[in-house]
Amino acid sequence: MQVRKFEARTIKEAIELVKLELGPDAIILSAKENVKKFGLMGESSVEVTAAVSETQLHAKKLAERKMNLKTRESFVNSTAKRQRKFIDASTLSDAAGHSGGMEMYASDQQQSPAPKPQKRAGITQARYVDIDEEEMQAAPATQSTYSPNAARQAAATTAALRQATQNAQANEAAHMAAQNAAAQKASAQAAAYAAEQNAPAPARRQSSSDSVQVMALKNEIDNLKAMVERFQKVPQNFISMHPGAEEGIPFELSPMFKKLEESGLAINHICDILRYANDTLPPEHKKKRAFVEGWVIRYMLDQIIVNEKPMQGRFHVFFGATGQGKTSTVVKMASHLVLKEKKKVAVFTGDIFKVGAKEQLKTYCQILNIPFGVMKQASDWREYEPLLKNMDYIFFDTAGTNLKSGADLDRLRAMMPITNDKVALHYVQSALARDADAFEIADRFKILGFQDVIFTRLDEAVQQGLIYNFQKRYDVPLHSFGIGSHIPEDFEFASKERVVDMIFNLSKTLKERGQS
């Protein structure tokens, strides 16, 4: 079975392409008006999907090879019904062992046209040969444009084909007997056609016409049988594919594939989750979205890693690229510990390059009434050491850098606290960054060996998938989140439930249900 798509400005031009490429026996499966414009001038277009059996297409090509240039030109310009007659005559000539098909076609061209059947509107649910082309050519141009009912008619055609497939399977034994009888019938018709050539001219023309009609009916029946037998082998995605089909995700899980993709999860992580779900979930549960979503949430809760002891140790260093929210994170975390947990916190900064950075941080420390200092070189840690003995936590806000050179890395390493205590290294990442940009910069900082990651500006991000993608890529736990501009209210330590809530918008969904 050959299935092809044809695009043209009007439905008439599209059907002409169907006839030219696939022949008069092509079946029109669907027709639709394209949303995108056609051609360089941006004109609207119509797309027609048609199918033809291999046998019918082979018969058309075989008949065309017998034509000379003049006959072929006449054949192309003929209506589909006349083309069908010539192909039938050519088949008869092969069976009878002579070339009477060409003369029959020429004789048929000279005969008076038969009465025209009732005019069909739009796209018919039949072979192209049954479309009345002569009326179609005589109709105004406005009648050849795409009809809105075409999609419904194409859908009805598809339903009819599926029903026909079931009937064909139920009558498979009868069809095999019909095929054996068809060979005997073709031989008898070939002998009858040979006898007709010896009859008087008027009788021969009448008999030839009847024989062609019988052959056309037989071919139509055989074509339908062949089509319904092979229909199940035709790819069913020539019109559209469900989300995730290219990755091998079944149709039942496609809504979840789309939801995770819209949340920003990487395709490879989505496929890992849903393939495991497909192998694990019972078939009846895959069809229920609530079951699938609950399973995926449970799976992600098991996969997400958070720092269970985020404030372990006294010294905490915050580093990352410029503009990721390091200073805001230091202020929020210090405010949370001082105001809510009544801890003693000292804050230091190594950012002497950014205008106003140290002044801003100093102002916040004065409001909180906590120690503040500026580190210009590593030896400054020795001077502040006596003042830090009574502190519960010491925060160091490093200068923002992208580590584009070895000198930047050496400078950052040289500014690390000089202490015998364990130093916690926190990488700060904005949730607004694209995955590729975030990974490129994080790869440079990975050499420092950061122990966890802090995500900021979550209130501004539309997608939260970067949180899951980052944690899976670097296999580091999540430390905390900055979810707004309020201090210290918009700071919280990371939890698995919070990540799933942001990815699936669970709080928003529950709120909307409560209001309704």
Would you mind describing this structure in some detail?
The chain has 516 residues and is α/β, with parallel strands linked by helices. It has three domains: 232 residues, no CATH class; 59 residues, no CATH class; 201 residues, P-loop containing nucleotide triphosphate hydrolases (Rossmann fold, 3-Layer(aba) Sandwich). It is built from 21 helices and eleven strands. The strands form two sheets. An eight-stranded mixed beta sheet has the order 6-5-7-4-8-9-10-11, with helices on both faces. Strands 1-3-2 form a three-stranded antiparallel beta sheet. Helix 19 links the parallel strand 9 and strand 10. Helix 4 packs across helix 9. The radius of gyration is 38 Å and the shape is elongated.
How do the helices and strands line up, and which of them pair or pack?
Layout: E1 2-8, H1 11-22, E2 27-33, E3 46-52, H2 54-65, H3 69-77, H4 80-96, H5 100-110, H6 133-138, H7 150-170, H8 172-196, H9 201-230, H10 254-262, H11 267-280, H12 283-286, H13 289-303, E4 315-319, H14 326-340, E5 345-349, H15 357-368, E6 372-374, H16 380-384, E7 393-397, H17 406-414, E8 423-430, H18 435-445, E9 452-456, H19 465-474, E10 478-482, E11 491-493, H20 496-504, H21 506-515
Parallel strand pairs: 4-7, 4-8, 5-6, 5-7, 8-9, 9-10
Antiparallel strand pairs: 1-3, 2-3, 10-11
Helix pairs in contact: 4-5, 4-8, 4-9, 8-9, 10-11, 14-15
